[in-house]
Specification:
Elements: H1 4-13, H2 27-30, H3 39-45, H4 48-56, E1 74-78, E2 84-87, E3 91-92, E4 100-101, E5 110-115, E6 122-127, E7 133-138, E8 148-151, E9 156-160
Antiparallel strand pairs: 1-2, 1-9, 3-4, 4-8, 5-6, 6-7, 7-8
Amino acid sequence: MITRRILLAAMAAGTIGVGVTRRPRSASAAEDYTVKHSEAEWRKLLTPEQYAVLRQSATERPYTSPLNQEKRRGTFACAGCDQELFSSTTKFESGTGWPSFWAPISDKAVGTERDTSLSMVRVAAHCGRCGGHLGHVFDDGPRPTGLRYCMNGVAMAFRPLAA
């Protein structure tokens, strides 16, 4: 029997080393973010993998991000603009192959929008400061929220808590 997780992982693995491109956000949506760069500037600031995920809504292959195994206390921030996104206290092992969290660090840190790419209806998550694509949100997470923020590790940087 194929479960939803197996199907999603297989679809993601078959896409590319880093991703599936879908429509870019509209120019009007980009105007709402406090961190703005031209596409040429983003290409200079980000690695090709980060650019594909953050700016073109690609998906990294499951189980490839070192952040999936990150167990230290600290904060996960946007790789594009350094906005704090998630606390390590909300990270959990989802078994999907991507870093997963049950809540963002604040209501403004992570935004969401409807995503109808790949003939599916999902909720895409993006950075509240620069609009970079982070991953997707599903309703199969743990308590207290019941949500699973399934994030691309390449879209984030980890900052360990000072000892």
